[in-house]
């Protein structure tokens, strides 16, 4: 029998399950987190939970928030179990379970974001954090602020009824300025190089479209710390729900995760912060090196293998690492083409980090699907892989493997696997990508001519010629032939 998860049933759970030791009735909100998905609950919320377990940070509890209609369903499920989360750690040496309680509420989801704004203007809210995906920050092809996006245009014209999370933040900050409450820290927890700087660009840029004085106030008074976040957290499906029940817990939204977490943060918080470093987070002024290592080797490494896995019908990332040719691609590209453009961080070299990621990706207990990892390639390739290509071209370094990686993405976006099965749409721009991929089957350079993602790379012969050659081989001889040719396996 599994016990429905709630505050009232915590004492009824099996004794081996770790539950909050603190009195959740005495917690006070200090953080609003927008985009409350699995990653946040396994990562940032866990750090805060462990801090609360030490008797600290009880005035920093989390209020969840969402800006998409689909978030309403998650809200109902979490509220039904008092915002508790079952975390299941998956490791080859064994599984462990913990219930976290650092989240105490969830803002109603509304199209005009009025409830979210109302919560953000409360004086006890001192941090507004976000996980809204790498592609959610309204950047244009050059990395600047995309002021012409329809959602941004709407929020600039109707700032008191915004559609976006950023518009809601701007309106809340306007009211806080006007009523004397003061600023809050704006904290991105997404996989972006310089995520705090990008968040500042979006928030200040949006405010400037409607109220330049407010934009100046935000820029001068709010802080936007850069950070690096890391933990592999698969999506929740029937298997994860069943796993929670196997441990005796009926949780409608459990989260599985690996036995690894890292959080590196700039210590720039204008209205205070929890002492996350007491439970393993790192505060430093050199986040950039950690970001670059993680984004290029881990996140970029995911894109190196996931598209090949989709084409060859390998369902999981661990399965990709078991596939000898995909694993050989990972090792060769990471070692020869990515690592040379990554600096060491204290205690870890690029080669040591590659070995760590190899081990983490190979964890058979983590059923992280190739489809999930390949999702939103238009953001992930541009954010994780193409900066490496540009660095390599500037330094006359190898690009053959990265050209093959991009050719595999182009092949995947055609929409079929090599066994003939259909790859369902897996990107916000899927129709555009698929159209370009079909054209590129006969004229490979057409893929690189998508300037919104590739910029001028179609005009760089060393990369473009290699891409042309690899995509031609993939279509003529198959992905495995291309992988064998590149790796020598």
Automatic annotation (TrEMBL):
Chain coiled-coil ranges: none
Keyword terms, alphabetized: Oxidoreductase
Keyword Coiled coil on entry: no
InterPro entries, per database record: 6-PGluconate_DH-like_C_sf (IPR008927), 6PGD_dom2 (IPR013328), Mannitol_DH (IPR000669), Mannitol_DH/Oxidoreductase (IPR050988), Mannitol_DH_C (IPR013118), Mannitol_DH_N (IPR013131), NAD(P)-bd_dom_sf (IPR036291)
Pfam families in the cross-refs: Mannitol_dh, Mannitol_dh_C
EC number(s) on file: 1.1.1.67
Entry's transmembrane regions: none
Residue ranges constituting the Mannitol dehydrogenase N-terminal domain according to the UniProt record: 30-277
Protein origin, superkingdom: Bacteria
Primary enzyme class: oxidoreductase
Chain ranges of the Mannitol dehydrogenase C-terminal domain: 286-472
GO molecular function per UniProt: mannitol 2-dehydrogenase activity
Gene3D superfamilies, per database record: N-(1-d-carboxylethyl)-l-norvaline Dehydrogenase, domain 2, NAD(P)-binding Rossmann-like Domain
Protein name: Mannitol 2-dehydrogenase
Organism from which the protein derives: Palleronia marisminoris
């Amino acid at each position: 029998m599994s016990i429905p998860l709630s505050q009232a049933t915590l004492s009824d759970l099996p004794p081996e399950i770790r539950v909050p030791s603190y009195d959740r009735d005495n917690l006070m909100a200090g953080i609003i987190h927008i985009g409350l998905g699995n990653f946040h609950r396994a990562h940032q919320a866990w750090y805060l939970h462990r801090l609360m377990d030490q008797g600290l940070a009880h005035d920093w509890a989390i209020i969840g928030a969402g800006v998409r209609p689909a978030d309403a369903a998650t809200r109902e499920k979490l509220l039904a179990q008092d915002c508790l989360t079952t975390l299941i750690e998956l490791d080859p040496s064994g599984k462990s379970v913990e219930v976290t309680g650092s989240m105490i509420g969830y803002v109603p989801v509304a199209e005009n974001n009025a409830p979210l704004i109302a919560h953000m203007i409360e004086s006890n809210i001192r941090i507004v954090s976000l996980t809204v995906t790498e592609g959610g920050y309204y950047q244009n092809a050059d990395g600047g602020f995309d002021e012409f996006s329809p959602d941004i245009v709407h929020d600039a014209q109707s700032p008191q009824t915004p559609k976006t999370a950023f518009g809601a933040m701007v309106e809340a900050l306007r009211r806080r300025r006007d009523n004397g409450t003061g600023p809050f820290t704006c904290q991105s927890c997404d996989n972006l190089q310089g995520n705090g700087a990008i968040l500042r660009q979006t928030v200040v840029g949006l405010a400037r479209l409607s109220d330049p004085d407010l934009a100046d106030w935000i820029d001068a008074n709010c802080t936007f710390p850069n950070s690096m976040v890391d933990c592999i957290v698969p999506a929740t499906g029937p298997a994860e729900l069943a796993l929670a029940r196997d441990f005796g817990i009926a949780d409608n939204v459990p989260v599985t995760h690996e036995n690894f977490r890292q959080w590196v943060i700039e210590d720039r918080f204008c209205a205070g912060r929890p002492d996350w470093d007491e439970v393993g987070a790192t505060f430093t002024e050199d986040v950039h090196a950690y970001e670059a290592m993680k984004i290029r080797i881990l996140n970029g490494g995911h894109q190196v293998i996931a598209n090949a896995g989709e084409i060859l019908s390998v369902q999981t990332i661990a399965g990709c690492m078991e596939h000898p040719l995909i694993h050989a691609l990972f090792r060769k590209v990471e070692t020869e083409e990515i690592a040379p453009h990554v600096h060491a961080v204290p205690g870890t070299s690029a080669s040591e980090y590659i070995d760590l990621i190899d081990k983490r990706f190979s964890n058979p207990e983590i059923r992280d699907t190739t489809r999930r990892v390949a999702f939103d390639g238009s953001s992930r390739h541009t954010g994780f892989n193409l900066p490496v290509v540009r660095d390599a071209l500037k330094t006359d370094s190898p690009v053959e493997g990265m050209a093959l990686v991009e050719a595999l993405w182009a092949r995947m976006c055609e929409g079929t696997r090599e066994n003939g099965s259909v790859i369902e749409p897996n990107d916000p721009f899927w129709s555009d990508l698929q159209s370009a991929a079909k054209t590129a089957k006969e004229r490979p350079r057409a893929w690189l001519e998508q300037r919104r993602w590739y910029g001028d790379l179609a005009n760089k012969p060393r990369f473009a010629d290699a891409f042309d050659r690899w995509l031609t081989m993939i279509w003529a001889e198959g992905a495995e032939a291309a992988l064998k040719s590149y790796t020598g396996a």
